[in-house]
Specification:
heterodimer; A: alpha+beta; Alpha-Beta Plaits; Pseudouridine synthase; 8-stranded mixed β-sheet; 23% helix; elongated; B: Rossmann fold; 6-stranded mixed β-sheet; 4-stranded parallel β-sheet; 19 strands; globular
């Protein structure tokens, strides 16, 4: 038995499915592909797969990963890629299989590219608004938790951020705390902006990569 | 494929995965390579429509023809609908993203009466005129099939062509005729008149209806050589009939998220309230070999690890036990589980129980339909009290602790004692649990009684019966509730208001079309959903249109009245239904098709159980 990490992109129609749906799609593909992965041994056996960091509905993912256990250690990685791609919808493409170098729990940061626009104001104004927000002392938003709404300051969760003005939108490259303890969803930044300006923004968010605490790429 | 314009709004709605297509096995063709585009519309949400087997069959079958491209369209949920209206986004098909108004055919499957408003609303959202007479061109031909077409009259003014019966053959014949007529430059009227000559095709605009002063039908007259009676079509050989080897596999979770294998069509039982039990006659089975092969193909092509063996009554499949036995090895090797919905009370044997238990233990549901034996005899349920207790005992001994029982209230001849008998039956099931020696240890039993309100349907022996009025139904619901004495029983009942409106449409005539049109204008939609159904608005609308809903729902119809659906032939004769109705009044049951032929009329198709029986007798 060997642990493997399967790398994929999530885009197109599949951008609009939740993490739970993605999980179902992946399990079905694993089942259909007949790749010798370890199955749970309960009453209703199914392939065992875990995701180091779930991706929110609506985000594109270009470097996403899923961990499974391979029963046949000599099974070819290329075969896994080909077989799974044949079983997956077009919006999910496997591009690599590796042996994990880091444990899933090591994820500490995630980087995103956010394209933000607004029907009511120009992209230069959106750019200014974003820069203003990032410069403020604290960025407080209401965050849903299991115990109802609570107000949090997400500013400490922003590791780095850069805003560029484009013709039709503002583009923000941002690295945020991620993982099980201090996760900051980039949508919270838009929420904070909306609260400040009262405008409605359209967003197109891509998650580029995951990192460990030392900001080394998660592999 | 979803357009940039739609994409802009997708993150503002619930479950955007409903509106994007892009699933495994969706069929994408090049527009240039096809000459007929068919928009297959399901008048409900994506999750409901994607669970429907008929749509999967026809989608695959149409697309197996090179020159046809069939795409899927579902009703957008209210949040998406609002955005589409506000931003002038027309309803579009999931595969191409093209507007529905681009399509040659717009086909609806009508599964329940309360989805009629969604059908009209979907036309409206497509910017297509709802009235058939306002669509003059040889495009946007609106067709409809499904069980509700056995009384298509309440929507007769809107649909160009109804397909009566099973669609696998007739749909393609009509599409082919359309291609020829278009090539020859024929008008839509000419096409419709020719289509009416195909068996199983009903073109409502070719018929004239006259009414008596009391509102009943005086005459129903065909014009332009249309047939006086429209005979349903059926697939005679289920093994040779088209069945898809793959389903579109949804990206989001749907209501029935599994492979579905059809074992048989029709039902031998003849429960007197059940429309499906009559309109799908005669019973025709697939062979176990076909079933197994198709299950293997479906699972291999979809990745599903669960297959549901579908029918109106699973245990009536003649070879159910050998079939389950033969599937055991495959299930274990492939890690696939089999589920058997629609199990009859008297069909739950040790053999079957042990087979379905090896794979997955879900809750058990049975439908005794009535509480007292007299009432069950009236409806010809043919389930004995002792059988029910025996079955529950078998299930409890097998480890189940949760049982759901479905009932109907408001059945013909029902008394308050019959209603109370439902509660008593629930109590007896609870008692049976504690009397079962080898029940699950240390667990309590949970019995759910669920009561819907009886809706009289066309092509059943109860088609002449009045529905109980809403106050009477409420009274019966309360009476039942008051008679439940234990917390181990939970009781649910279905809203009587929706059943009333359903009863109006189910046995309606063409006079209802104007109410439908007004409902569409006012934005009625999703009437089958509690969050959208507005009873008061419906009553106000009926009043405004001068329609008395009680005329349709609560009136006892005379046996010699011309019924709105008398020109449709679903296989069973009116005289048989009448005989069954009179037997119901005398609490006399009728044996099922395999015990004895009761001469319902379906033998004329020369196939299925009617034929099977004659062979046995020789």
């Amino acid at each position: 038995m060997k642990n493997i990490r399967i790398w994929f992109k999530k885009d197109g129609a599949c951008r609009y499915i939740s993490h739970l749906d993605l999980n179902r799609v992946m399990l079905r593909a694993l089942h259909k592909s007949k790749i010798p992965v370890w199955h749970t041994e309960g009453f209703n056996p199914h392939p065992f797969a875990t995701f180091p960091l779930p991706l929110s509905l609506g985000f594109r993912g270009v470097n996403e990963c899923m961990d499974v256990k391979l029963e046949d250690e000599d099974f070819s990685f290329k075969e896994i890629i080909d077989r799974l791609n044949a079983c997956l919808p077009a919006g999910i493409r496997i591009f690599d299989v590796t042996e994990p170098l880091m444990k899933a729990g090591k994820v500490a940061f995630a980087s995103f590219t956010m394209r933000i626009s607004c029907d009511d104001v120009s992209s230069s104004i959106v750019t200014k608004q974003l820069r203003g927000l990032l410069d403020s002392e604290a960025i407080t938003v209401e965050k849903k938790s299991k115990r109802g709404l609570k107000t949090v300051d997400i500013k400490p969760g922003i590791r780095s951020a850069e805003v560029r003005e484009m013709l039709d939108c503002a583009v923000m490259d941002i690295t945020l705390s991620a993982g099980s303890s201090d996760n900051v969803n980039p949508n919270l930044i838009i929420t904070a902006l909306q609260e400040q300006t009262g405008l409605i923004y359209d967003t197109d968010i891509t998650r580029n990569d995951l990192y460990n605490a030392e900001l080394a790429s998660f592999r | 494929m979803v357009s940039k314009e739609v994409e802009k709004y997708l993150l503002r709605v619930q479950k955007p995965g409903r509106y994007v297509g892009g699933e495994l096995n969706e069929v994408i063709k090049d527009k240039k390579d096809v000459d007929v585009r068919f928009a297959f519309c399901f008048p409900d949400t994506y999750e409901v429509g994607m669970s429907h087997l008929g749509m999967k069959i026809l989608y695959s079958q149409f697309n197996s023809v090179d020159h046809i491209w069939c795409e899927r369209v579902f009703a957008p949920w209210v949040d998406m609908e609002e955005i589409m209206i506000k931003n002038n986004i027309p309803l579009y098909a999931l595969e191409s993203g093209d507007p529905v108004s681009d399509f040659d055919f717009i086909g609806f499957t009508l599964q329940y009466e309360l989805s009629f408003t969604n059908m009209l609303n979907m036309l409206k959202l497509s910017n297509i005129p709802i009235y058939s007479r306002d669509r003059r061109e040889m495009k946007n031909i609106v067709v409809a099939g499904g069980p509700n077409t056995c009384n298509p009259e309440p929507i007769a003014d809107f649909v160009d062509i109804f397909f009566i019966g099973e669609g696998e053959e007739v749909d393609l014949e009509v599409i082919e005729l359309f291609r020829q007529c278009r090539d020859q430059g024929k008008t839509k009227d000419e096409f419709l008149q020719l289509a009416a000559q195909i068996e199983g095709v009903y073109v409502p605009s070719l018929y004239e209806v006259e009414y008596n002063e009391d509102g009943t039908i005086k005459s129903f007259t065909p014009t332009h050589n249309a047939p006086a009676v429209i005979h349903k079509r059926i697939m005679k050989n289920m093994d040779e009939s088209f069945y898809p080897d793959r389903f579109v596999v949804p990206l989001i979770e749907i209501v029935h998220d599994r492979a579905i294998q059809e074992m048989l069509r029709g039902c031998i039982r003849g429960c007197r309230f059940c429309q499906a039990g009559f309109i799908y006659r005669p019973v025709r089975e697939k062979s176990p070999e076909t079933i197994r092969r198709q299950c293997r193909e479906l699972c291999a092509n979809t990745g599903y690890d669960e297959v549901s063996l579908s029918s109106l009554s699973s245990s009536d499949y003649t070879q159910i036990v050998p079939l389950l036995e033969q599937m055991t090895d495959w299930c274990r090797e492939e890690k696939v589980s089999v589920s058997l919905p629609s199990l009859r009370v008297d069909g739950f044997t040790d053999d079957i129980m042990n087979r379905i238990k090896t794979v997955r233990k879900s809750g058990l549901t049975f439908a005794p339909e009535a509480g007292s034996q007299r009432m069950r005899d009236v409806i010809n349920k043919n389930v004995q009290h002792d059988e029910l207790m025996q079955t529950c005992s078998t299930a409890f001994a097998g480890g189940w602790t949760t049982i759901k029982l479905y009932f109907m209230i408001g059945l013909p001849t029902e008394t308050m004692d019959d209603v109370k008998a439902i509660a008593d039956l629930g109590q007896e099931v609870v008692n049976t649990y504690y009397e079962t020696p080898n029940r699950a240890k240390g667990k309590s039993v949970r019995v759910t009684l669920s009561a819907s309100s009886f809706v009289p349907k066309p092509f059943t022996p109860f088609q002449w019966e009045p529905q109980d009025t809403i106050p009477v139904l409420h009274e019966k619901q309360m009476h039942l509730k008051d008679n439940i004495k234990t917390k181990k029983i939970s009781f649910h009942y279905h809203d009587a208001d929706t059943s009333f409106v359903e009863a109006v449409f189910a046995r309606g005539d063409r006079k209802l079309c104007k109410a439908m049109a007004l409902a569409c204008e006012r934005g009625f939609h999703f009437d089958g959903w509690n969050d959208c159904f507005d009873f008061d608005a419906w009553m106000a609308l009926f009043e405004e249109c001068g329609i008395d809903p009680a005329f349709y729902a609560n009136r006892r119809r005379s046996f010699d009245e011309i019924l709105p659906w008398d020109h449709i032939d679903c296989g069973v004769t009116k005289s048989f239904l009448l005989k069954e109705c009179k037997k119901a009044y005398q609490n006399i049951t009728t044996p099922h098709c395999r015990q004895q032929c009761s001469g319902c009329g379906a033998a004329k198709y020369g196939e299925g159980v009617c034929f099977e029986k004659h062979q046995n007798m020789v």
